[in-house]
Design brief:
The protein is α/β, with parallel strands linked by helices. Helix content is 34%, strand content 12%. Strand 5 and strand 6 form a beta hairpin. It comes from Streptomyces cyanogenus.
Length: 419
Amino acid sequence: MGRMSRRAFALAALSTLATAPVATPAEDAAVPAPGAAAGAGRSGTAELRGVWIATVVNRDWPSRPGLTASAQRKELIAHLDRAVRNRLNTVILQVRPTADALWPSPYEPWSEYLTGTQGRHPGWDPLGTAVAEAHARGLELHAWCNPYRIANHTDPGRLAASHPAREHPDWVVPYGGRLYYNPGLPEVRAFVQQAMLDAVARYPVDAVHFDDYFYPYPVAGQTFDDDEAYDRHGGAFTSRAAWRRDNIDRLVRETAAGIRRVRPGTRFGISPFGVWRNASTDARGSDTQAGVQTYDDLHADTRAWVRNHWIDYIVPQLYWHIGYSAADYARLVAWWAEVAQGTKTLLYIGEALYRAGAAGQPAAWQDPVELSRHLTLAARYPQVRGHVFFAAKDLADDRIGAMARVVADHYRGPATPPW
């Protein structure tokens, strides 16, 4: 047989996906002041320094829909150059925000956040350009996908005529003013993997990245209607909650296997909400009083994913300040470090740069040193191998100089991701 190009091999592997078998916010706590020792904590050589670039509702980029291709590209390049100036080494770009695409996908329509009209070609290839330009700057590019969110509204008629959610209305569940794909349907799970892995097949992305949306966050007084799917597929489970967790576990395991099959060496990471379970619910949980627990409310067993090495890295979103009584950053870093200890899953911490200096945030977040204190504290734990900042717009604004302080205290030299 003649030699196949790497892309041809990847696309061929992708075609087997659908039939492949399952492989399954108080006072600051006392912490050391940031300074020279903190800056040397990782020797400046092997840590992930990342930033999320969110495209949903044009949060970070593009600044608004309908910009010309050249203007969109210019804005994107500015984000990449800013990452380099801040001595970061990774950008996590949201390329599938709402069951759509920032590349010429054969499965899903072009994102409305590019042109203002879902399905309209933007006149360029944003993901392909992002990968090439990131790599040219020594940055990793992680392709951030949201698996199940379809739309931030409940009107299927507003979707592109060719949208899979219109072709398969039985896949769709309206909930909390949004549309979601039903995670309990095997055909949905297969489709979303196929759609996401198309990007892996086409481009040398360094990783695929999921955020914190699996089953949707609870909305008081509303029920996620998956009765029919549960009746068809949940018979082997002791409860609907156990069945739902299994659905998400399968998505995680199958996606990991699909990535390995389509482009070996590409990694898989997830950035969940920062609390798995409160200790009052489960003795193995964290010393927190969080109103949301991923295991119970999002049906995402994030602890198991780490302990079983189903994913290459995890970035819990620890978006609270040090000393916050309900979810103390310091306590959560310690908890996640213990979870990751002895595993092959790399632990990075998701940091709330967006809160620094923002109106309405607690006093701790008005202190430009708070974020730097986070990195100083986390440096106590060898399991913490880096940090990711939310998000790119806030990196650009840096309202009170919190990120500048992080760079001065901790990022004085270059670093490479610890793979």
